[in-house]
Design brief:
By secondary structure, this protein is α/β, with parallel strands linked by helices. The protein has a domain of 352 residues: 3-Layer(aba) Sandwich (Alkaline Phosphatase, subunit A). Helix content is 29%, strand content 15%. The chain has 17 helices and 16 strands. The strands form 3 sheets. The protein has a 10-stranded mixed beta sheet with strand order 7-6-5-4-8-1-9-10-2-11, with helices on both faces. A hairpin with a 4-residue loop joins strand 15 and strand 16. The N terminus is likely disordered. The protein binds calcium ion (2 copies). One calcium ion binds next to loops.
Length: 536
């Protein structure tokens, strides 16, 4: 992609990208030096042919990056995945306070690709004109995504799975700039009878067992890793399954695997007293037995649908190991948003400020990453792009920050953030996903394979439309301002399940302090965001 194709707004953002680093890579390649081991500018030049043996011990200057992004996976559910547990959590870091700023698909994915908060990337919902794929294109983000940045740094880049809601717009052969290989899923969330845009060619899949999307995705991603890992050129693979998002169809071999499972019942499940809560939660009915059964059914489906993702992770790790590149690869595993399943009487859904929506799983393993450790520092989905850039030896202008000091198990030299902004800005349109929230989805499709259990699809939310919000989540508190003027405040140390909003009874000094923090974050940009997040 030449810089002439870039809009001026984004072109401005591109300038600081580490072009010197990529120049040095180019010169080293041109001089016949072998690849990524030699790319670190200050490292002594390695004699040719030593990479394979060294790769097992330390990261090269440009390690491979494998990013696995699930869809609507909540923190509690991932703990039940055996391979992810043993291969990622036990072998890497678990980020225990990982959040997404706007807990819904498209805005979160736009944040991941740009490193920007919603108020800066302006893709604020799943649907055009306030959001969606077309808005992302219109804003010029495709030409300036982290993929473009990494490609410019010498990475071989590949995309697999769910891109942005509304993709591909009018052109099912559209391949965004920045990707050397592209396997973009078409036909929304369907796991049978869908197509994939495979490097500009629309390929259809049917309804046989072998067409199950997560398995097809796993095959394509594993194949790429098998081809790319032995090469000197480092790779960046973005692998985005649609599980466990509705219709949450399990692979046939996994049906019934969680037959005995029930949704966790934390104290916030079917919250006894919601009089402390803003509307519409304060008007929500208690969860009936029948509804609880639907919520449990759907939870089982979600867990079962995740098992194919769990196997995919094992397949990718195995392929990296076989190529001798496992110790030269950072593997990130996370989700675009969390999921409500009965907490605060919300039977299903996301796009809320509550922990179940905004908190996501995040595991990272890779060279120098302490195995089996936990990080309690606040991280956000704005951090991925700058982290990937720094791992590649470059920088990327973003609202977030690089997680690399945390990946090394170090205390960051400068201060770390003590707060993050959660934001759902007012929008003129309502997304299909939100409209559909009250309906059961995924019934009887694809010869009965999709959503065939019980009620079929997503349980009704049981709670009315969601109000726009801006909120600050600190290490100890969450303060929310809703678009309709209501507020909400939790002391997360005393009340981790968010059972009692203290917005009326809290010390006014505390409220003023949180208000000021939120004001500073609402319209922040880049360094301004980091300063606002770091404020004590
Ligand atoms: Ca999602
Ligand atoms: Ca309550």
């Amino acid at each position: 992609m030449s810089s002439g194709d870039v809009t001026s707004f984004r072109a401005r953002r591109r300038v600081p990208l580490g072009f010197l680093a990529s120049l040095s890579v180019f010169l080293l390649f041109a001089a016949g030096c072998s690849g990524s081991e030699s790319a670190q500018e200050e490292a002594p030049t390695q004699p040719e042919g030593t990479e394979a043996s060294q790769g097992a011990e330390e990261a090269s200057a440009q390690p491979n990056i494998l990013f696995v992004l699930t869809d609507d996976l909540d923190y509690a559910s991932v703990q039940q995945m055996p391979e992810i547990g043993s291969l990622l959590a036990k072998e890497g870091l678990s980020f225990e306070q990982a959040f997404v700023s706007h807990p819904v698909c498209c805005p979160s994915r736009a944040t991941i690709l740009t490193g920007l908060y919603d108020h800066n990337h302006d893709v604020i919902s799943n649907n055009y004109p306030s959001g969606g794929f077309e808005k992302f294109v219109e804003e010029g983000h495709e030409e300036n995504s982290i993929a473009v940045g990494l490609q410019e740094e010498g990475y071989q880049t590949a995309f697999f799975g769910k891109y942005l809601n509304g993709y591909p717009g009018g052109d099912p052969t559209h391949v965004p700039p920045g990707w050397d290989e592209w396997y973009g899923k078409l036909d929304g969330q369907k796991l049978y009878d869908y197509s994939i845009n495979e490097n500009g060619e629309e390929v259809s899949y049917g309804s046989e067992e072998g067409d199950f999307f997560t398995d097809v995705l796993s095959g394509q991603a594993t194949d790429f890793v098998g081809r790319a890992a032995p090469e000197d050129q480092p790779f960046f693979a973005y692998v985005a399954p649609t599980a466990p998002h509705g219709p949450a169809t399990p692979a046939e071999r996994h049906e019934g695997a969680f037959a005995e499972e029930e949704v966790p019942r934390p104290p916030s499940y079917d919250e006894e007293d919601v009089s402390d809560k803003p509307s519409p939660i304060s008007g929500a009915e208690r969860i009936t037995e029948e509804e609880a059964s639907d919520v449990d059914d759907y939870h089982r489906q979600r867990l079962e649908s995740m098992l194919a993702v769990d196997e995919m992770v094992a397949s990718l790790v195995e392929e990296l190991e076989a190529a001798g590149e496992l110790e030269n690869t950072y593997i990130f595993f996370t989700s675009d948003n969390g999921w409500q399943q009965g907490e605060h009487r919300i039977r299903s859904g996301k796009n809320r400020t509550y922990e179940e929506s905004a908190r996501v799983p995040l595991f990272v393993r890779g060279p120098g990453v302490p195995a089996g450790s936990q990080v309690q520092k606040l991280t956000l989905n704005t951090d991925f792009a700058p982290t990937f850039a720094e791992l590649a030896g470059a920088s990327f202008p973003a609202d977030g920050r690089s997680l690399t000091p945390l990946l090394r198990g170090e205390e960051p030299s400068s201060s770390w953030r003590s707060s993050v902004l959660l934001e759902k800005l007012p929008q003129e349109d309502t997304s299909e996903e939100e409209k559909g929230k009250g309906k059961a989805k995924g019934k009887g499709k694809a010869k009965g394979k999709e959503g065939k259990t019980g009620a079929g699809g997503v349980p009704k939310a049981g709670v009315g439309g969601e109000t726009a919000f801006e909120a600050v989540r600190t290490e100890t508190h969450k303060y929310v301002e809703y678009d309709n003027g209501e507020t909400e405040l939790y002391d997360l140390e005393a009340d981790p399940y968010e059972l009692e909003s203290i917005h009326e009874s809290a010390d006014p000094t505390l409220v003023e302090d949180l208000k000021a923090k939120l004001e500073a974050l609402k319209s922040c940009s880049e360094e301004g965001c980091r300063e606002a997040e770091d404020a004590p």
